[in-house]
Every structure is written in C-alpha cells, then in structure tokens.
Amino acid sequence: MLLSGTMLYMTETIKKEREQVFTPIGTDFMKRVWEESWVYIKTVVDIVREPILILDKDLRVMGANDPFYRTFQVEQRDTDSKVVYQLGNGQWDIPALRKLLEDILPKNSFFKGFEVAHDFPFIGRRVMILNARKIHFKEKAALELFPPIILLAIEDVTDMMMVAETLAIHANKLETKHTEQTEKLESKIGKLEKEINELKKNPPKSYRV
User: Fold this and answer.
1) Whole-number average pLDDT of the chain
2) Hey, what long-range contacts does 115-123 have (CB within 8 A, 24 or more apart)?
3) pLDDT at 18
4) Whole-number Å distance between alpha carbons of 185 and 176
C-alpha cells in the first residue's frame, strides 16, 4: 500500500514536470527572442560597407544601413516601412529587380552576382551588383512566429565600370593605331619589294669613263 502511494506520487510528479516542459512558449518570450534577433541582424548589417536593405516577405523595407542612405541619397523616414519599389518616388521600380525578387528568389533561397543598370533621378546612372538571401525557418510553427526576411545587398560598381570602359576605349584606340601603323609599314615594304624586283629585271646601265 505504501509502495502504491509512492508510485502514484511519482507518476503525478512526472506528469506535472512534463506539462511544464511541453507548455506552449509564451508570447512575451517569443517577442523577446525576436527583438534580440533583430538587434543582432541590424548590428551585422550596420557594419557592412556595402548598401543593404532588409525586406519582409511582402518586400516592405524593415531597415537599411548607412551606406544605403549615403549612396542613394535618401532619408530613413522616406525608406522604412515602404515597399521597395516605392522608394524614392518609384525610382526603385526596376523591371530587372522585380524579376529577381518576384520570380527568382521565391524559387531559391538566394541569388547573387546579378548586374543591374538604372538611371536614378538624383544620382544619375548606376551599375549595381545585386545579391539577396532569404532567411526563414522551415518548420511551419516557427515560420508563423518568425516571418521570413530578405537581405538585399547592393554593390555599386559604377566607378569600377567607368574605369573598365575607359581602359577598353584606350585599348581600342591603341589597337586601331597599331593596326594603322602596321598597314602603313606593310604598304611601304610592298613598294620597296616592288622597286627591288624592278631593279632586278632592269638593272641600271653602267657607264665607263
């Protein structure tokens, strides 16, 4: 009888412990985890030198780093909570960017190395290399608590491309000049060979004193 009472007590104790372990996580706890995660993400993004946008699943801007604001000359108040295509009065409504974010990214967890050229109203023509990665949980329960986010990195290679184009133009000029000089030299050599052949066929008469 004593043994049965002890077993019953142990069973009830184990049951209570299990209930405590498997009790659903509170909303406050999940909120705190998300806030800490967000601070971590923002910290990492802020120390990166290239412009970065943080987008939610609806492509709405959750945040950006200082290089983005400086490079594209926009203010935080005009950027946060806006759909990426609406930034700068629609200057980011770029067909190539739409294709990347709406067609390619949903089928993959990332894309990288896509070159996009666009004329912006204030900063002029920019050539950019776009890289994006989608961060999300695979489990449905976790996905409901932590919605996916997208990190969009924008590398401005405009100056680099200008240097490359300048070098290419200079190289083409040198090649053209070299070709012209070669053609002139070949022409002179041809004339000289012709004169030599004429001399061989008709040698000059020798005169005796």
Assistant:
1) 77
2) 115/157, 118/91, 118/94, 120/72, 120/88, 120/91, 121/88, 121/89, 121/91, 122/73, 122/88, 123/71, 123/72, 123/73
3) 46
4) 14
Nearest to 145 by CA among 22, 53, 28: 28
Given a contact cutoff of 8 angstroms between Cβ atoms, the answer to whether 130 and 100 are in contact is: yes
Same domain, 111 and 176: no
Distance of CA 165 to the CA centre of its chain: 21
**What one-character-per-residue DSSP string does 110-139 give?**
EEEEEEEEEEETTTEEEEEEEEEEEE--SS
Q: Is 78 part of any domain?
A: yes
Q: For residue 118, what are the β-bridge partners?
A: 126
pLDDT > 70 fraction of the chain, expressed in percent and rounded: 69
Domain that holds residue 173: 159-204
Strands (E), the chain: 52-56, 61-64, 110-120, 124-135, 149-156
**What letter does residue 58 receive in the DSSP assignment?**
T
The answer to the question of residue 40 being in a domain is no
200 vs 203: CA distance, rounded Å: 6
Average pLDDT value for residue range 144-164: 79
Residue for token digits 């300048």?
A: 166
The amino acid that residue 113 corresponds to is G
Token pair listed for 18: 């299990």
14 within a domain of the structure (yes/no): no
